[in-house]
């Protein structure tokens, strides 16, 4: 069975995920949404305590993370870039593309002797598109921000023939959330087997 790839993202109603290198709602902070992101991307599968989760991101996503928060701790950080020759300061690994990053996960050298558990793709837009169009088991953890903000970067359309919205998912609240006057909902989509 092939590895499940998880995408995690927060989107505006028009699927906007970024604006001028930051989140569309910046400078407003959604601390509970960040806690949700961290909890999901850090939590390992029961019985996988000897493994670590992996976050895969494009170069621009890496540099959009405040320097004080890089690397994302308790996770193996893999940055994708065709321009960089070495991993940016703080990143654990550099790969030219998604396929190369996934090959890194097959050997114990990736984690200093530990194998990878869950794999999380955290952006950007073209990487999300690639993952969503690739065959195999995929999950999309989407925070639907219920307020529109200016955006210049967008999440791909979640095609109903490729993905289905799950009515519930363990550990993910289905309740309406609100912070700093912004309402949002957590949703989980599962890829549909061809």
Structure description:
Keywords: NADP, One-carbon metabolism, Oxidoreductase. One of its GO terms (molecular function) is dihydrofolate reductase activity. It is an enzyme of class 1 (oxidoreductase). One of its GO terms (cellular component) is mitochondrion. The chain has 194 residues and is an alpha/beta fold. The chain has one domain (5-191): Dihydrofolate Reductase, subunit A. It is built from 4 helices and 11 strands, in the order E-E-H-E-H-E-E-H-E-H-E-E-E-E-E. The protein has helices at 31-42, 59-64, 98-104, 125-133; strands spanning 5-11, 16-18, 52-58, 76-80, 93-95, 116-121, 138-145, 153-154, 163-165, 177-179, 182-191. Strands 1, 3, 4, 5, 6, 7, 9, 10 and 11 form a 9-stranded mixed sheet that branches. Helix 2 links the parallel strand 3 (52-58) and strand 4 (76-80). It is globular, with a radius of gyration of 16 Å. The two termini are 15 Å apart.
The number of helices is 4
Which parts are unreliable, with pLDDT below 50 for 5 consecutive residues or more?
none
Helical content stands at: 10-25%
Main sheet specs: 9 strands, mixed
CATH superfamily: Dihydrofolate Reductase, subunit A
- Under CATH, the topology can be stated as Dihydrofolate Reductase, subunit A
Overall mean confidence score, pLDDT: 93
The tally of domains stands at: 1
Overall spatial form = globular
Measured distance between first and last alpha carbons: 15 Å
CATH architecture: 3-Layer(aba) Sandwich
Encode the helix/strand succession as letters. Answer: EEHEHEEHEHEEEEE
């Amino acid at each position: 069975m092939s590895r499940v790839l998880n995408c995690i993202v927060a989107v505006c109603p028009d699927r906007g995920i970024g604006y001028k290198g930051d989140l569309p709602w910046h400078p407003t902070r959604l601390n509970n949404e960040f806690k949700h992101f961290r909890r999901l991307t850090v939590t390992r599968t029961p019985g996988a305590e000897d493994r670590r989760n992996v976050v895969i991101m494009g170069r621009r996503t890496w540099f959009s993370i405040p320097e004080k928060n890089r690397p994302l701790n308790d996770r193996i950080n893999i940055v994708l870039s065709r321009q960089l020759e070495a991993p940016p300061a703080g990143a654990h690994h550099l790969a030219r593309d998604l396929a190369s990053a996934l090959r890194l996960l097959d050997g114990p050298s990736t984690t200093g002797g530990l194998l990878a558990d869950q794999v999380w793709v955290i952006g950007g837009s073209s990487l999300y598109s690639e993952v969503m169009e690739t065959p195999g088991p995929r999950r999309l953890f989407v925070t639907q921000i219920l307020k529109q903000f200016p955006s210049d970067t967008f999440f791909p359309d979640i095609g109903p023939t490729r993905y289905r919205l799950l009515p519930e998912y363990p550990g993910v609240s289905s309740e309406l959330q609100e912070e700093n006057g912004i309402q949002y909902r957590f949703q989980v989509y599962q890829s549909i087997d061809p």
